[in-house]
User: Fold these one by one.
Assistant:
Number 1:
Amino acid sequence: MQKTESAVMGVILAGGLSRRMGGGDKGLSFLDGRTILERIAARLRPQVAALFLNANGDARRFKALGLSILPDGVPDFPGPLAGVLAGLDHAAQAGFDEVAVVPCDAPFLPADLVTRLRAGTQAGRGAVAVSAGRRHPTAALWPVHLRTALRKALVEEDQRRVETFLRRHDFAEVVWPAEPFDPFANVNDPGGMAEAEALLAHFPAA
């Protein structure tokens, strides 16, 4: 897809090991008849010019999503920052200036996520989502020019905490209301799945 001048590339971060869900791919867990990843892709795809999935291992397990896969370029599963870096590297090659990243376990993401993140920041600065007083470091807008600093942090400094990197580079905070439900509620353990199912029972359109 050819980008427009203001287009944003999107990346769903699914390169982790899902230890709290007992291993496997938590994004492939079903929630009311659809996988969590299907829900996220459907929510994010209209907001970006091109959408990719950051994942490692056999890509065939994600075939139903119809997304191109971006594996980590840094070995040994160093965490979400490796997925972000893979996205930034691909975006640089494709001519994008910004990348919106989202986690693979948040099925209720806002339909205005990218628009509001972009409106809440200034040129050259990133933005991170906040709800209920909590920052969501894997729901953020990244300027592509940070890829050099990110590679140094990962490879040379072994810096793996997303929040640490965001604070170091002064990402702007963009706040969402958490009522009637938190749009960044995640499903990273069996308890989170039960809560998501209960939420859908009360808000079927979520």
Number 2:
Amino acid sequence: MSSASGPTAGFTPTGTIASTTDRRRVVFATVVGTTVEWYDFFIYATAVGLVFGQLFFAPLGANSAIVAFATVGVSFLFRPLGAFLAGHFGDKYGRKVVLMWTLILMGAATALIGVLPTYEAIGVAAPILLVLLRIIQGISAGGEWGGAVLMAVEHAPKQRRGAFGASPQIGVPLGLLLASGVMALMAMIAPGDAFLVWGWRVPFLLSVVLILVGYYVRRRVEESPVFAELAERKEKARMPIITLFRKHLLLVFIAALVFAGNNAVGYMTTGGYIQGYSTNPEGPLALERGPVLWAVAGSAVTWLLSTLAAGFISDRIGRRTTYIIGWILQLAGVFLLFPLVNTGSIWLLFLGLAILTIGLGFTYGPQAALYSELFPASIRFSGVSISYAIGAILGGAFAPTIATALVQATGSTLSVTWYLAGMTVVGLIATLLLRDRSGIPLGPDHEAEQSVSPIYGLSKA
């Protein structure tokens, strides 16, 4: 790390002095990198809700939408593989190298989807190739989050981990904002059949430019100070994943449930469900594609602001208390969402999404700091990555598919509301099972303290 003196200097978790410039560079790099990654990931989900059922799964008729949404979920099944690989290599070789590779993998897969022929052109090979590329996106996403989180939190002073940790978190709403905005713009430039023919491809191809920007920014960031000290002491775990599951299996599961409660609800928009439900020409609303995309983009702004605010607030009142407030807000948003969406008004649709995203922000903003403070330094990358990946499977992986199936089976969105409410309550219960560890030392000198279980009723992990 660069040294500094005077009022602008501060201490990293390992005691090394870090300048304000170093920290700003880390925050900027994590925001840019995660925004690019999630733009790529969400562009796919948005396209599923709008065109992929028709272009790649048309022979399935009425089931094309369900199968198309299922391809969104398939990628989540491969997130644990990405998390296992990234966790293993991240704990052995560093956070930075993993982040460079996840960015490249995600960008390559996204750009290739942009040139992929449809079912009409090459038959069944089209959906097969689409799923394979989505799997690559899933592997990349599984490894991305943990590395970005640790780069931010492990560079932060302990009293500001929530604020620093919110920087990779806001990459999600920023990615959604960018994906929805670009898709909305293309819906204006290439309306109607032109959007089906070529308009949807442009946002995927733009990924090439964004990846180059993200790669350049990430190259300039120094390695996490916690990992640098582990490497200097030669205290890196040989088999971090085995250690994680042998000593911290229950903690991984509870941490995963915390994220699952947020992720299931969040994927109503990031998974493309609201976009598909509200614009379906054969559905009850049949709204225009462009205005719906702009409404989703607008809600991404409220999500961004609430996520950022929650990170700062968690530094004042603790991660656990911030989460509890968030679950209450999220539950209120869940019960308001479909009554407002089903009015058929674009403005009320936006209002429903905006209210929902306030709760989503409060149950997502503190997650980076919460997860980082749960696991010991030597296996932290594996712990946060795998918990996140499992939570994504239990929560958002098939949330759009489940919602679509529930509406088809019951004829009402009320069933979806109760499903989302149930997932929110699961997240709340998981949060209540964990002690607040805000401010716990993160460096390798404190492995013994970090290894004491944060789960109520347990003294050892």
Number 3:
Amino acid sequence: MDNLLAQVTGTKRVVLYSPQDALHLYLSGDKSEFVRAKRYECVLEPGDLLFIPALWFHNTLALQFGVGVNIFWRHLPADSYDKKDPYGNKDPVAATRALQALERALHTLDELPAEYRDFYGRRMIQRIHAVGKNFQ
């Protein structure tokens, strides 16, 4: 979800990465490590506000004891979100289903000999690239 971070007291370092750099980040659960992604960094002081758009990877580190307040809001239809995820940390429901379908498809390709897996895997990649071009 979109997020407005308000620093009330103390200071906090915030590092952000654009969703366009997702392929340059290693994802492990809900944590990420950057590789070649463009890093945006700032230090929030008391009274500062930072808008963090949905899909932006971010990490915060308190530089001194403080209080920060996050305000999250949804911009997709309510049924797009996992009802057990009040902070929007999980993927939208449709994206979760799509990723699960991809995992099942890849697992199914494992039933084929290597040269067939390669051929059909490349066809899947072409299809995904074609879909991605529709969004650019």
